[in-house]
Specification:
single chain, alpha/beta, 6-stranded parallel β-sheet, 13 helices, 11 strands, elongated
Length: about 375
């Protein structure tokens, strides 16, 4: 009885198990169930021995008593059998049953709490792992980024996991509704990186913690080095604030190194869906290399393919769109589309930006030569 008393006192101390780990709670549930099963087996044996019941009747009586159903169709009739029922079932069995139910409820609560706060081990595979979060407007950034990922047929149903310490109270509803899960931790800690399933991910994205500070590149480099050691550089996309640090990251065999552009998270999605496209998009966000320029050029029904051919052959750039006479911008029209435009939008190189006259002359020369050949 002393052991039983100590066991009951122990359960009273651990009833508020929401503060325990799920492993401890699971052990408590298993221990309660095994002890309860032991008392039930003793009661079945007592009924067979003291009451001379058939085995099935003894089991039936034990279960109906333990669950407090008490049909009354079978019962102990001898003083010894009644005493055994009171001791094994009324005092010990039913008490342990309440502890078992309490521990199970606590286990469910603790599990839900761990999931909410990002401490649950998801054991994911073939998922997209996004490390760190922007310093500003985190929810809006992630919402837009994940919606863009879901637009791709290839990643429409791919699990997405965030690894950061910026959502201690759980993810916002707007992100959970998009099927995102969260792991609270830092990728600079190997255990947290392992818990997030980095080695099983299909893509890893490392965001700059502060897109305005080059100091965040140091933390990014530490994470990139850890991923390099795990041979994961070939699936990793990294944001780099300072252009001079890009070479260091590329030495770690990082797949893609990008400048953080918070107003356009789609650039990261492009790096996953169509590798290489992101470099073209990134280039358009700066004035250092290629950039789009609008040139006033009057067109009266010429084929778009011929217009593009005229500009490209003159080595002036690549036409991307045109502006109609009503001011509407038409992007990437069909080659056979006949253009009625007041302006062309051309992707040009900064060091060789053509003048308006250069573009007009190139188109005039091209169509004059074309007309002469037709004559």
């Amino acid at each position: 009885m002393n052991k039983v008393t100590r066991f009951i006192h122990h359960h009273r101390r651990v009833r508020h198990a929401v503060y325990q780990t799920d492993t401890n709670i699971r052990r408590s549930v298993i221990r309660s169930a095994l002890v309860l099963l032991g008392f039930a087996a003793l009661h079945v044996a007592a009924m067979v021995w003291l009451e001379e019941m058939a085995l099935w009747h003894a089991i039936w009586l034990t279960m109906t008593t333990l669950t407090t159903v008490g049909y009354g169709d079978v019962s102990a009739s001898t003083p010894a059998g009644q005493a055994a029922t009171m001791l094994l079932m009324f005092i010990c069995g039913i008490t342990l049953m309440t502890f078992l139910i309490s521990d199970y409820v606590d286990f469910r609560i603790a599990r839900r709490e761990r999931i909410r706060t990002g401490h649950w081990d998801w054991n994911m595979a073939d998922h997209i792992l996004i490390i760190n979060s922007p310093k500003y407007n985190r929810e809006a950034y992630f919402q837009r980024m994940i919606m863009q990922i879901r637009e791709s047929d290839e990643y429409r149903d791919t699990p997405i996991q965030l690894l950061n310490d910026d959502f201690p109270d759980g993810l916002p509803d707007s992100l959970r509704q998009l099927g995102v899960v969260h792991t609270t931790g830092l990728a600079s800690r190997p255990d947290d990186l392992k818990r997030a399933g980095a080695e099983r991910a299909s893509h890893i994205v490392v965001l700059a913690r502060d897109e305005y500070s080059a100091d965040s590149d140091s933390y990014t480099f530490d994470i990139a080095y850890r991923l390099f050691e795990l041979h994961l550089g070939h699936i990793t996309i990294v944001e780099c604030v300072e252009d001079s640090n890009r070479a260091r990251l590329r030495k770690l065999q990082i797949k893609t190194v990008l400048r953080p552009i918070r107003s356009y998270p789609e650039i990261i999605v492009r790096a996953m869906v169509a590798p290489g496209v992101e470099l073209v998009i990134e280039d358009m966000f700066t004035h250092a290399d290629d950039h789009p320029v609008r040139f006033p050029v009057w067109l009266e029904g010429e084929r778009w393919a011929d217009v593009v051919n005229a500009v490209v052959q003159a080595n002036l750039g690549t036409p991307l769109a045109y502006v109609t006479k009503d001011g509407e911008v038409v992007t990437h029209p069909d080659g056979d589309h006949h253009v009625h435009a007041q302006s062309l939008i051309i992707l040009v190189h900064t060091e060789k930006t053509p003048t308006i006259r250069d573009v007009q002359r190139a188109i005039e020369v091209h169509f004059n030569i074309h007309a002469a050949k037709l004559d």
